[in-house]
Amino acid sequence: MRDLLLRLVLNTLTLWIVTQLYGGIYFARGSGLGDYLLAGLIFGLANALLKPILLLLTLPFNILTLGLFTLVVNAVILIIVASLTPLDVRGFGGALIGALLLSVISFGLNLLIGPSDRRRAR
User: Quick one: angle between helices 91-113 and 2-21, nearest 10?
Assistant: First the structure.
């Protein structure tokens, strides 16, 4: 349960950082913490449930592009999340750049907290 809450916080923090750094992804004015948490929750669910299916369906493109098509899949996930939450994305190009930023920032935050099995050993 603790890991799920940590993932929710990390997803929310990552989305917040990206909206602060990049103008192509933003929350409507007046959005509060609840809106960010909702977007983080739906983003995590979409990554856990939809992303593996989309990656499997696009496997030939991923092989041809040596994995770069995964960025397109991430952008589609971001557009889906934006359609279900107060998050707004400016076009597919905005989603593509946002997906790249989300990947880099999420990678950095995951490096900071370390793997989940190491946290359990403490």
Answer: 130
Task: Show pLDDT as tens, one digit a residue, over the chain (122 residues).
Answer: 778 888 889 989 999 999 999 999 999 887 888 899 999 999 999 999 999 999 999 999 999 999 999 999 999 999 999 999 999 999 999 999 999 999 999 999 888 887 765 555 55
**Domain assignments of the chain as residue spans, ordered by start:** 2-121
Of 116, 108, 114, residue with least CA distance to 18: 108
The pTM is what?
A: 0.85
Give the count of beta carbons closer than 10 Å to the beta carbon of residue 108: 11
